[in-house]
Design goal:
single chain; 342 residues; mainly alpha; ABC transporter involved in vitamin B12 uptake, BtuC; 2 strands; 1% strand; globular
Length: 342
Amino acid sequence: MNVVAHRNYTRAIVVGRATMDVGIVPLLLLVVVAAMALVEPHFYSTGNILNMVRSASFLAVVACGQALVLIAGGFDLSVGAVIALASVLAAKTMAWIGVAYPDEPGLAIAAGVLAAMASGAGVGLVNGFCVAKLRISGFVATIGTMSVTLGIALILTNGIPVYGLPGSFVQQFGRATWLGLPSTIYAALSAIALLVFVQRRTLLGRYIHAIGGNPEAAIVSGVSVFRYQTSTYVLSGVFAALTGLLLTAQVGSGQASLGGDRMMLQSIAAAVIGGVSLRGGVGRLEIVTLASLFLTVLTNALNLLRIDSRLQPVLLGVILVVAVALDELSRRNSALDRHEPT
């Protein structure tokens, strides 16, 4: 395939995905918000709204990274474990350097951030190599790295939170407010904006859609599947590690219990509810971010209504199954439309 045809192919993939409608996520969000206005006035309190937005921003960062992997035809079950490992490594590094250099909190913070981000990139690189190079199923490969990563986090902490973080990291970043909003929200929104730019305006974004939409055609057109599919896993790991940092700054300690299965499941649910296809090639990160807000608002509403916490994962599972079923029906209808005689 020549260069012009190659460019036209990848451009057509992206344009086709970009013209998708926003789905029912905004409507679902509006319904939940309107219903809570009638039954629970505390839902609209300033503190509750800020808590929801903060929690949604954490989930959205992980979900957008997860979405890139799904769009490229992969699967990443290790994001929750990466959050835990990043939190532990960041806290331990900051605490150790804080003791060695008590007058250099900036050095401790920088080293902790670097350690956390490196751990996320490392896990993502291993995932990408196993999937793109060794041709191991993304489901199997990331289950393996999830187990190893979480095990390392538990070994490093023995299940005990790690304290000793610099006060400026916790007070001036994790728990501070800028212009009335928690500072972590600005960090999360900046990260999401960067990923949206990558998806919509860079060759990496085009190739991710091309690989997920039709891997064989992408290979024929000269796209390096190994390079770009591995890049999605690295990005997913890095942004999961960023979430670990944001959560660590908020709670004031490194914990191996942060993230876990719940964050992994919610990130996949947010991506799928946001229109990302589990078969790859389809998805918009802006809608995934909105879906993250919807899930957070729904969880908050269930808590305020005093719904048994044991039933909430059941509801999340039902929503996820319905979203996958709708995705499959949509694909079948599209396939039928393409094959109808004109």
